[in-house]
Task: structure prediction
Amino acid sequence: MGLGIVLRAAVDRCVQLGCGRLDLRPRRLFGPPLGLLGRRAFHVAAGHGWRVVPYPRGVSHALAVHALEKRYGNVHALKGVDLSVEEGELVGLLGPNGAGKSTLVKIAVGLVRATRGQAEVAGARAGSRAALAELGYLAELFRFPGWYTADEVLSLHQRLTGSDGGAEERRRLLELVALTDARDRRVDGMSKGMQQRLGIAQALVGSPRVLVLDEPTSALDPAGRRIVRVLLEELRDRGVSVLLNSHLLSEIELVCDRVAILRAGEVVAAGSPAELSRPRGVELETDEGTRTVEGATREDAARLVAEAVAAGRRVYGVRVLTSTLEDTYLEAVGDEVS
Result:
């Protein structure tokens, strides 16, 4: 059985979420937001003719990589990637298999060394003791000892990370992930969803400033994914910065502040979901039927309705059409298949 090894000390584990009601009440789990990395501009390498939305200058970074390269023999896994996650921001990482997402994550958490470039967590070199002390990590694949209870799993990770939070920290974390009633339940008696939430709780041991999640909802049903979404939004509100690596475009679109799409080791599109969407026209429903005005935008909607009414038409509905994150993703990665 593979044991999840703690990564601020080195954790390798994945999680599968579960169902159940997640009741999040206001409570103080983390301290006040802190200024994190140095101030520097974010740059994304453009590719395949896709536009890149620049990130604002003069903001601190919780996690940042610059000109990051990684080679495995003749394989160029990362080709000069620039990426940042700001304080209290949730950034989604998308791309087909082999795009370099997992390599980037492993460099950020200190499991792999970069060939060239820089990677920092809270201002410290990725993989250093200072960086690991600020980092919580949930890997794609993990195993907790089946004979451990939820409380014992968190106690183990407190010892591995050097957390002095004790029983009170364990209580707060189990409450945060809606596992208070499972405190004394053994891991092998938990559903996948409960184990997933327990994995997120262990990643939060020691109140890290930065959380890196690798495919945290890949094996979950819709109810389980919603629980994780609510939890991530709660963490963001508490000032925790999150880098989320996922294949689930719908989840990324719903919860992330910004998105970066990788293809063949390069960032080919980046920005907020709204910034990456493009207008596809305005759909107008009248007594003559439904028609789409190509090239029209939100600003044109009121004028189109007024013109239809002036022409004697009865207007039943108007809808502004924009591309989805899936459309953006497919244009950015081309014929690459996950």
